[in-house]
């Protein structure tokens, strides 16, 4: 199965393993297994001890916790090529969130035993992994900055433009929301009502057109200026 899945190829593109050698990747692959989960399945609960970290091959996973008021708070949406669970694995602490699939998904579970064994054998590998964790920390800091310093509208525009950074000029673009608006709103630290109101205001301003999960950006430059 591993050969058919080309596990090494997937692992070589994981940010945490980006600079690892082919030999290091091959050894990590020996401790990697494929997981097939249906939509709505829970991979782990808050409080579970980590068995390793995960890579999404296809599908989508939400990381969330239940607030004291009983509401679902989405911390992150994980799509293909993205990983999660590294920090608690290294700290050997229980998961602080739960992970649940939003669509039928396939994941690779990279066992903590394989990672730790490689770390003990190879100091260079440890430095490479530290670089990967530093990049992840930078992303978390950027998220916190967005919550604290950016308005709700800026956060929504940033979300819509996250895949459009390399596009030039005033091109139009269709964005397909990866999941329902309530989940995305929680990820952006907004209420569903506030998220919908912002989309309506952007539509009223002629910057977007919303049709279900499809958001049509009428002019990229104008939307960037609005942020």
Question: Could you explain how this protein is built, in words?
Answer:
β10 and β11 (214-217) form a beta hairpin. This protein has helices at residues 2-5, 7-12, 22-29, 86-91, 112-121, 123-149, 152-161, 181-187, 192-204, 220-226, and strands at residues 32-37, 42-44, 52-58, 61-66, 72-78, 83-84, 98-101, 105-111, 173-176, 208-211, 214-217. It folds into 2 domains: 2-149, Jelly Rolls (Sandwich); 152-226, Arc Repressor Mutant, subunit A (Orthogonal Bundle). The protein is 43% helix and 24% strand. The longest helix has 27 residues, at 123-149. The protein is α+β, with helices and mostly antiparallel strands. The mean pLDDT is 84.
Fill in the keyword field for this structure:
227 residues, alpha+beta, Jelly Rolls, 4-stranded antiparallel sheet, globular, 24% strand
Summed up:
By secondary structure, the protein is α+β, with helices and mostly antiparallel strands. It contains ten helices and eleven strands.
Total count of strands = 11
Q: Can you summarize the main beta sheet? A: 4 strands, antiparallel
Q: Which regions are unreliable across 5 or more consecutive residues at pLDDT < 50?
A: none
| Terminal residue distance | 46 Å
CATH architecture of the largest domain: Sandwich
Strand order of the largest sheet: 1-8-3-6
The radius of gyration computed from the alpha-carbon positions, rounded to a whole number of angstroms, is 19 Å
Helix vs. strand class = alpha+beta
Proportion of residues in helical segments:
40-55%
Shape by Cα distribution: globular
Q: Mind telling me the CATH superfamily name of the largest domain?
A: Jelly Rolls
Helical stretch count?
10
Count of spatially separate domains: 2
**Order of secondary-structure elements:** HHHEEEEEEHEEHHHEHHEEH
CATH topology of the largest domain: Jelly Rolls
User: Strand fraction band?
Assistant: 15-25%
Name the CATH class of the largest domain: Mainly Beta
Mean pLDDT figure? 84
């Amino acid at each position: 199965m591993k050969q058919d899945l080309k596990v090494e190829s997937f692992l070589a593109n994981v940010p945490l393993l980006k600079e690892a050698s082919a030999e290091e990747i091959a050894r990590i692959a020996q401790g990697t297994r494929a997981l097939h989960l249906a939509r709505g399945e829970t991979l782990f609960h808050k409080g579970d001890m980590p068995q390793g970290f995960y890579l999404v091959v296809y599908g989508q996973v939400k990381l969330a916790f239940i607030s004291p008021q009983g509401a679902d708070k989405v911390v992150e949406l994980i799509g293909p090529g993205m990983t999660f669970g590294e920090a608690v694995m290294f700290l050997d602490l229980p998961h602080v969130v739960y992970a649940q699939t939003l669509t039928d998904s396939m994941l690779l579970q990279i066992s903590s035993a394989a990672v730790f064994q490689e770390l003990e054998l190879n100091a260079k590998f440890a430095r490479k992994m530290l670089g990967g964790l530093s990049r992840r920390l930078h992303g978390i800091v950027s998220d916190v900055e967005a919550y604290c310093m950016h308005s709700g509208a800026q956060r929504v525009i940033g979300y819509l433009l996250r895949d459009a950074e390399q596009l030039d000029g005033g091109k139009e673009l269709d964005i397909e929301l990866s999941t329902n608006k309530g989940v995305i709103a929680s990820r952006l630290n907004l209420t569903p009502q506030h998220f919908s109101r912002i989309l309506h205001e952007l539509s009223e301003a002629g910057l977007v057109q919303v049709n279900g999960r499809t958001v049509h950006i009428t002019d990229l430059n104008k939307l960037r200026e609005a942020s």
